[in-house]
Write a structure and sequence with these properties.
The chain is α+β, with helices and mostly antiparallel strands. The chain contains 14 helices and 5 strands. Strands 1-2-3-4-5 form a 5-stranded antiparallel beta sheet. The longest helix is centred in the first third of the chain and has 96 residues. The relative contact order is 0.05.
């Protein structure tokens, strides 16, 4: 390539030289000089390249080494980042598990607090109510931290453990209770397991404590005070023998809730009295109708045949006398039949049926009132239930749902009125069914006697017409 360039330059240079008349040797010398200059310049360039190649190569090697170091650091950082992300995920999962465990423990602690509060004896309430109330307020406070809530719950658990330890060996503490005389007296409580005793300081009363109508425990004496001295010794921490209720005072509490019929009625509220009024009137009506229906004279057996025999023989007066001897609506109907036996049988049928129709209202008289009582009594009971529930909800607005005693009045009214409504309705329905069946039976008996008399009379008339 260089020779070609040199030849090209020489040819281009030779043309003008030839054209200007210069000699070939002068051109050759000029070309040689330029060639030497070019070769010298090429040598210098190669020297410069050779001198610069080594530093550039070293610099390249250094840059490659730096690149390798940077790549190694980048890989290390990526591994550290991946490990950190994995550790963060694992740590987040552990935190979630710890939160779930904390929530589970918190729920168990709250349940324990509720159970502890429900199982406390009425005499123990002043000892533990403040601690339980404070813990409950902290747990329900949305601004409290989890640590504060757990510490509050743990304090109640510690209190419950201390309580159990005290109950195992028995414990005594001062307090106030309501005696059977209705007075509040200062004394000492003694707890032995689930049983609590009380003895007043002046020694006037002693017994087992129960949950009464007030917030103070109520003292129930045992066997009319026969064990007052023994209970006083137990409360003082001395050894003594006292009776133990195996039902844990439940039998005494149930016995104390027994009430008379008048008290039970009074708890039913206003609507019990209309129900009882309907019941009394319905009972009186039922008794009157039972006497009226079951004492009504019944015709003797074969009375229809006797009357037909007399009429067939032409002894109408004797037939009328026999019919008159039969008392009650049946006798009156037979008297009409004998008196007008010479009439057409269809007309006589209408006349005798008229007596049956006249008798039916007297037989069914007052019975609808019993039916009305059977229908109205449950409705009045339902009305009492509604008013009782309204009173209950009104008390819930005032006292909340925590005090069951304040709600018992409305609930009693709601349930007792329903109870009395059903108690009145069921017997009324049964009495109405029995008495109405009896009344309808008497009407059916009159219809059968009337039909039998008319059929016999038709047979007699046909016989007479045939013989004539």
């Amino acid at each position: 390539m260089n020779a070609f360039k040199l030849l090209s330059i020489t040819c281009l240079t030779a043309i003008p030289v030839l054209m200007s008349g210069q000699s070939f040797s002068g051109a050759q010398a000029s070309i040689d000089q330029k060639l030497e200059d070019s070769l010298a310049k090429l040598a210098d360039t190669r020297s410069i390249i050779r001198d610069e190649k080594i530093p550039l190569s070293k610099e390249r090697q250094a840059l490659l080494a730096d690149l390798k170091t940077v790549r190694r650091d980048s890989d290390k950082a990526a591994r550290v980042r991946d490990n950190a992300s994995s550790d963060l995920t694992s740590l987040s999962e552990r935190v979630d598990l710890q939160k779930e465990e904390i929530d589970y423990v918190s729920n168990l602690s709250s349940e324990y607090i509720r159970m502890l509060e429900s199982r406390l004896d009425i005499a123990e309430l002043p000892l533990y109510t403040d601690n339980i109330t404070e813990a409950t307020e902290i747990v329900d406070n949305p601004g409290a931290s989890e640590k504060e809530k757990l510490l509050a719950q743990l304090s109640v658990i510690d209190t419950g453990i201390d309580r159990v330890k005290g109950l195992i060996g028995g414990m005594t503490f001062p307090g106030m209770a309501v005696t059977q005389a209705g007075t509040v007296e200062q004394g000492t409580f003694g707890l032995v397991g689930p049983v609590s005793f009380f003895a007043s300081d002046d020694g006037s009363s002693a017994g087992i404590t129960l949950r009464g109508q007030s917030l103070q425990p109520t003292v129930e004496t045992i066997a009319e005070g026969s064990f007052d001295d023994e209970i006083a010794q137990v409360v003082k921490g001395e050894v003594s023998f006292t009776p133990l209720d195996s039902s844990l005072t439940n039998a005494i509490a149930i016995a104390s809730t027994k009430e008379s019929l008048v008290e039970h009625i009074q708890k039913g509220g206003l609507w019990v009295y209309p129900i009882l009024g309907f019941a009394i009137v319905s009972l009186i009506v039922a008794a009157f109708k039972a006497v009226e229906l079951y004492t009504s004279p019944a015709p003797k057996s074969g009375i229809t045949q006797d009357l037909l025999v007399f009429l067939n023989e032409g002894k109408k007066d004797q037939a009328m006398e026999t019919a008159t001897e039969t008392k009650g609506p049946v006798g009156e109907m037979l008297q009409v039949g004998v008196k007008y036996s010479h009439f057409d049988t269809e007309l006589l049928d209408e006349m005798m049926y008229e007596r049956i129709v006249e008798t039916q209202p007297s037989k069914m008289r007052l019975l609808p009132f019993i039916s009305v009582t059977a229908a109205v009594a449950p409705l009045l009971g339902l009305l009492g239930t509604v008013t009782g529930m309204i009173n209950t909800f009104n008390r819930i607005k005032i006292f909340g749902t925590g005090d069951a005693k304040s709600l018992s009045g409305g609930i009693s009214e709601a349930l007792i009125t329903t109870e009395f409504g059903l108690v009145v309705a069921i017997p009324s329905l049964i009495l109405y069914a029995i008495l109405s069946r009896k009344a309808k039976g008497d009407i059916s008996k009159m219809e059968r006697i009337s039909m039998s008399f008319l059929n016999g009379l038709k047979a007699i008339n046909k016989s007479k017409q045939a013989s004539a």
